[in-house]
Design brief:
With about 170 residues, this protein is of the alpha+beta class. It has a domain of about 110 residues. About 25% of the residues lie in helices and about 25% in strands. The chain has three helices and nine strands; from the N terminus they run E-E-E-E-E-H-H-E-E-E-E-H. The strands form two sheets. Strands 1, 2, 3, 4 and 5 form a five-stranded antiparallel β-sheet that branches. Strands 6, 7, 8 and 9 form a four-stranded antiparallel β-sheet that branches. Strand 7 and strand 8 form a beta hairpin. Helix 1 packs antiparallel against helix 3.
């Protein structure tokens, strides 16, 4: 039976069944701003996915500087500008970087007060919902809410939060 955490209109995760006879592949669906993020691939390799998501939780809780880097621009304008600049400065804001389940989405995360703003877009021309291709969507929620959703998802996946690589505060890598 699937477990849903969060609000699909802001950010949500649903942990479902294992794939076939596998104990490592499991259905994980993610939503932000009412959009289904894992529409291309919702089968997560649990060990890799757990490590990446735990890295994100650690990163967010580290107090890293996620303030908007381009003064005077909105989060959507900043998202677009960072993609256009392509000088490496956007990497500190990339989210989520959790492997194949999220590699169809280009997104950034910015901290505005106690809230996180996540502008994102689907980049594949063959996106299953053509009307969404090229649009920038924005999810906004309290930082504590996002961290709570991620921690509940990790618990449902039975991740070990003290795993050697998952316990680091380094920025997660694919």
């Amino acid at each position: 039976m699937a477990e849903l955490f969060g609000d699909k209109k802001r950010f949500a995760a649903e942990v479902g069944e294992f794939s076939d006879d596998s104990t490592q592949l499991r259905r994980v669906d993610l939503w932000a701003a009412g959009r289904w993020l894992t529409c291309d691939d919702n089968t997560a390799d649990v060990p890799q996915f757990c490590m990446s998501v735990q890295g994100t939780v650690n990163w967010l809780q580290s107090g890293c500087d996620l303030s908007l880097p381009l003064p005077g621009l909105s989060p959507v304008e900043t998202h677009r500008r960072l993609l256009d600049i392509d000088d490496g400065s956007r990497e500190q804001f990339w989210f989520p970087r959790w492997g194949p389940t999220t590699d169809n989405v280009t997104a950034h995360v910015f901290r505005v007060g106690d809230r996180l703003v996540i502008p994102f877009e689907f980049w594949r021309p063959l996106h299953p919902r053509p009307e969404e291709f090229g649009q920038v969507f924005v999810a906004e929620l309290p930082e504590s809410e996002l961290v709570n959703v991620l921690e509940k998802m990790l618990a449902a996946l039975d991740c070990n939060p003290n795993a050697e690589q998952g316990a680091t505060t380094d920025r997660p890598r694919d």
